[in-house]
């Protein structure tokens, strides 16, 4: 296989697309393909594009093999096929750790020998320097030692509307009284959740479906604090398993299909961990990399982020979480919020990724 070896993960071209995964489950690597240059007009095209965006000339037949980009870790694996480290799930904590089959050593951080985390790989590969699943569990444990803070005083102008508490209108695809529309003329959110200040213990107990999360806490305007009957902390994998597939973490019934506008509680038949984030003010950022940095800063607060894809051309980003529960919380916490440029974000569920690599990994 002909390919270009990158010096390190950080040296990979920004304009590269995941085209395949090599290796066994629990010890896999992602293969990337660089954008191809049209021989007729010189225009640069995305790897998956079969014809030139400018002159419509066909993609050269040798482009796929000539433009492959792999890391040194993957190059070594392709040469000798040896890999001592494996990913293992701890049944007690439901967290990944890494086990060396040769030495018997184990650790939480992803070893350098495995390289970067495979894109869209679900639980099979946590980041090298960001074991945020472990940090969220420890943060929750620390926050639960104090009473939850009252975010707003009762009777403030902030609207209280518990979506899912009313009857579901099949014709319109939403609940009666559901007035949290998201559009171009939306006003900025009046409040925002800050887990470091707001999270704490409440009257809720995380037992069965009785321990649900407070949607008002997620949106930053719960006026009950420690007297609330719902959880005021960040969700973990155990919460998703405990509550089940038929309801979201806030106790709202999920449906067989997504709504046409991809808003709402989501689908139990087609579960999604990826959020569509629109409304980014791209003119206020110097580069797509700066946008991605800002998106990561604001969205990784709510859970372990697996992958972020910024499409600067249409002022949009796609944020994939490791756990569906984290995506559900982030969707409510970031609706109508801003990044760094006073945006009013439009946050919905993302449609299925057309990339077959991502589709296969999600399964």
TrEMBL record:
Residues 273-352 form the RRM domain. InterPro entries: Cwc2/Slt11, Nucleotide-bd_a/b_plait_sf, RBD_domain_sf, RRM_dom, Torus, WW_dom, WW_dom_sf, Znf_CCCH. GO terms for molecular function: pre-mRNA binding; U6 snRNA binding; zinc ion binding. GO terms for biological process: mRNA processing; RNA splicing. GO terms for cellular component: Prp19 complex; U2-type catalytic step 1 spliceosome; U2-type catalytic step 2 spliceosome. It holds the Pfam family WW. PANTHER family: PRE-MRNA-SPLICING FACTOR CWC2, PRE-MRNA-SPLICING FACTOR RBM22. This is Pre-mRNA-splicing factor RBM22. It comes from Pinguiococcus pyrenoidosus. The lineage of its organism: Eukaryota, Sar, Stramenopiles, Ochrophyta, Pinguiophyceae.
């Amino acid at each position: 296989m002909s390919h270009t070896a990158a010096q390190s993960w950080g040296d990979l071209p920004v304009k590269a697309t995941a085209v395949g995964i090599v290796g066994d489950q629990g010890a896999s690597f992602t293969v990337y393909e660089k954008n191809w240059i049209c021989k007729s007009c010189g225009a640069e095209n995305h790897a998956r594009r079969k014809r030139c965006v400018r002159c419509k000339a066909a993609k050269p037949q040798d482009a796929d093999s000539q433009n492959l980009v792999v890391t040194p870790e993957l190059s070594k694996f392709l040469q000798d096929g040896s890999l001592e480290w494996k990913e293992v799930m701890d049944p007690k904590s439901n967290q990944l750790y890494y086990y060396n089959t040769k030495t018997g050593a184990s650790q939480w951080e992803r070893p350098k020998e495995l390289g970067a985390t495979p894109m869209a790989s679900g639980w099979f590969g946590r980041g090298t320097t960001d074991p945020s699943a472990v940090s969220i569990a420890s943060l929750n444990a620390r926050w639960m030692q104090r009473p939850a803070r009252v975010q707003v005083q009762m009777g403030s102008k902030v609207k209280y509307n518990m979506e899912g508490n009313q009857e579901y209108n099949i014709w319109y695809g939403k609940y009666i009284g559901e007035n949290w529309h998201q559009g171009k003329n939306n006003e900025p959110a009046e409040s925002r959740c800050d887990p470091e200040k707001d999270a704490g213990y409440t009257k809720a107990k995380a037992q069965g479906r009785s321990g649900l999360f407070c949607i008002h806490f997620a949106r930053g305007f719960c006026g009950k604090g420690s007297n609330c009957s719902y959880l005021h902390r960040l969700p973990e994998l155990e919460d998703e398993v405990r509550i089940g597939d038929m309801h979201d973490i806030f106790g709202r019934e999920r449906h067989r299909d997504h709504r046409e506008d991809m808003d709402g509680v989501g689908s139990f038949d087609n579960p999604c961990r990826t959020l569509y984030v629109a409304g980014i003010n791209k003119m206020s950022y110097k580069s797509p990399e700066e946008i991605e940095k800002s998106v990561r800063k604001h969205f990784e607060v709510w859970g372990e982020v697996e992958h972020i894809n910024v499409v600067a051309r249409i002022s949009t980003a796609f944020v994939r979480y490791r756990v569906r529960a984290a995506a559900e919380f982030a969707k409510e916490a970031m609706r109508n919020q801003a990044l760094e440029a006073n945006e009013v974000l439009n946050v919905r569920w993302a449609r299925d990724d057309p990339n077959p690599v991502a589709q296969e990994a999600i399964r």
